[in-house]
Specification:
Structural class: alpha/beta
CATH topology: 2-enoyl-CoA Hydratase, Chain A, domain 1
Radius of gyration: 18 Å
CATH architecture: Alpha-Beta Complex
Oligomer: single chain
Order of helices and strands: EEEHEEHHEEHEEHHEHEHHH
CATH superfamily: 2-enoyl-CoA Hydratase, Chain A, domain 1
Number of domains: 1
Helix content: 40-55%
């Protein structure tokens, strides 16, 4: 087994599976730009490693990720296509090997939207997913404005993307975001067993099949990511977002009545 630890991101390769573990439990696995860079690099390394047949993305017991670290995002907003968060998005989107996600606890913001780009998603019965972008003065990202309405239908998507309503594991399975619900202690072992099944399958056929499955929507997804990123970046500097961020830091409800 090979293991690498960068700040708050742990990677290990064992039995054909490259594991990427979000490991910042003291901040509920909130993601910084440095963490996005580490994850993008880990995906790129797994893609080129001949011994890797599948990738496994997981968090800490009880929390997948609470989304972006707001303080880090305010101090280091994404700048262009080479920003760490967009590098991570492209790396996961373009990964030609199967990606399995194991989700326990909170999966907020990109913690939910990244699941749209994994091939298999297994969630604990305590999982709580949410995409609260609008409430922060922002917009949906990672093609969620395209993919969530397709999965849920426009009415339920409006609840999740406009109102930011959280939803649980059973609904995630019902709408097609996740494959199955398991007890928390069984999520990671089950996800690993699924990932290890690719050791017995021909890797070239797997890659070609995944590419064919993704091809019909590839251009639409890339266009949606680019359009969302442009508006998201602009809105990070908007008065509405500044009020939402200040309210977050001051532990109060935001006041949007003046807008």
């Amino acid at each position: 087994m090979s293991t690498t630890v960068t700040p708050h991101i742990k990677t290990a390769t064992l039995n054909g599976v490259a594991t990427i573990e979000i490991a910042r439990p003291e901040k509920k696995n909130a993601l910084t730009q440095a963490m996005y860079t580490a994850m993008a690099d880990a995906i790129a390394a797994a893609v080129t490693a001949r011994e890797v047949r599948a990738l496994l993305i997981t968090g800490q017991p009880g929390v997948f990720t609470s989304g972006n670290d707001i303080e880090d995002f305010v101090q280091r907003p994404p700048q262009g296509e080479d920003s760490p968060v967009l590098r991570f998005m492209r790396a996961l989107l373009e990964c030609d090997k199967p990606v399995v996600a194991a989700v326990t606890g909170a999966a907020v913001g990109i913690g939910t939207t990244m699941l749209l780009h994994c091939d298999f998603v297994y969630v604990a019965d305590d999982a709580r997913l949410a995409m609260p972008f609008v409430g922060l003065g922002l917009v949906p990202e990672y093609a969620s404005s395209l993919l969530v309405p397709q999965l849920m239908g426009p009415r339920r998507a409006a609840e999740k993307l406009l109102l930011g309503d959280p939803f649980g594991a059973e609904e995630a399975v019902a709408c097609g975001i996740a494959n199955a619900v398991l007890p928390p202690a069984e999520v990671l072992p089950h996800a690993r067993r699924v990932a290890e099944r690719f050791n017995a399958l021909p890797p070239g056929a797997v890659r070609d099949a995944k590419a064919l499955m993704r091809a019909p929507q590839r251009e639409q997804v890339m266009q949606a990511i680019a359009a969302e990123a442009e508006i998201f970046t602009r809105r990070l500097r908007s008065p509405e977002a500044m009020e939402a961020f200040q309210a977050f830091f001051q532990k109060r409800a935001p006041d949007f009545s003046k807008f």
